[in-house]
Amino acid sequence: MKYLNTVGGMSLLEMMIALAISAALAAFALTQYRNHLAKGRQTLAYSELLRIHQNRQTALLKNPSWSLQERQAYLDRLIKHDTVPKDLTEHYRISAVHSDTQSHLTAQPKDPALPTVWLDDAGYGYLCQSPHITTDPTERADCQAIR
């Protein structure tokens, strides 16, 4: 009668505890994996914004007489017609934010829990927690520079 409540020498309570620990470890591992993927996508977004920025800078060197509107239009064409990796477009929306004096590149995640990747005119990158992309990231507390 003593062994009716056991499986392989473990009591049911011990088995339930072991299953709970296994489930917690599996959930932790899955979270770590998702965080790793998100970090990789952030890196991809940043490198893609840098590539678009470099293509724009090369065109501006060749066409120094372009007006601000021509520069902004060229940047918009680069974003629409440039080859952005499919993995990136599945998770981010690449766009340009134009002001009176400059243009910023942003990669907004489709998952609102992830930070927005921001690249300014000088090529400096930032990660911003809120999706609000019209404010300069250097003036916001929720943004950190990418080094």
Summary, kept brief:
Helices cover 48% and strands 20% of the residues.
Please explain how this structure is put together.
This protein has 147 residues and is α+β, with helices and mostly antiparallel strands. It has a single domain (6-145), classed as Fructose-1,6-Bisphosphatase, Chain A, domain 1. The protein is 48% helix and 20% strand. It has helices at residues 12-62, 68-81, 86-91; strands at 6-7, 10-11, 92-98, 103-109, 116-119, 125-128, 143-145. Strands 3-4-5-6-7 form a 5-stranded antiparallel beta sheet. It has a two-stranded antiparallel ribbon with strand order 1-2. Helix 1 packs across helix 2.
CATH class: Alpha Beta
What count of domains describes the coordinates?
A: 1
Overall pLDDT:
82
SS class: alpha+beta
CATH fold topology: Fructose-1,6-Bisphosphatase, Chain A, domain 1
Distance between the termini: 66 Å
Widest β-sheet, arrangement of strands: 3-4-5-6-7
Global geometry: elongated
Poorly predicted runs: none
Major sheet description: 5 strands, antiparallel
Rg is 24 Å
Portion in strands: 15-25%
- The H-and-E topology, N to C, reads as EEHHHEEEEE
Write the layout of secondary structure elements.
Blueprint: E1 6-7, E2 10-11, H1 12-62, H2 68-81, H3 86-91, E3 92-98, E4 103-109, E5 116-119, E6 125-128, E7 143-145
Antiparallel strand pairs: 1-2, 3-4, 4-5, 5-6, 6-7
Helix pairs in contact: 1-2
Question: What descriptors fit this protein?
Answer:
3 helices, alpha+beta, about 150 residues, single chain, about 50% helix, Fructose-1,6-Bisphosphatase, Chain A, domain 1, two-stranded antiparallel ribbon
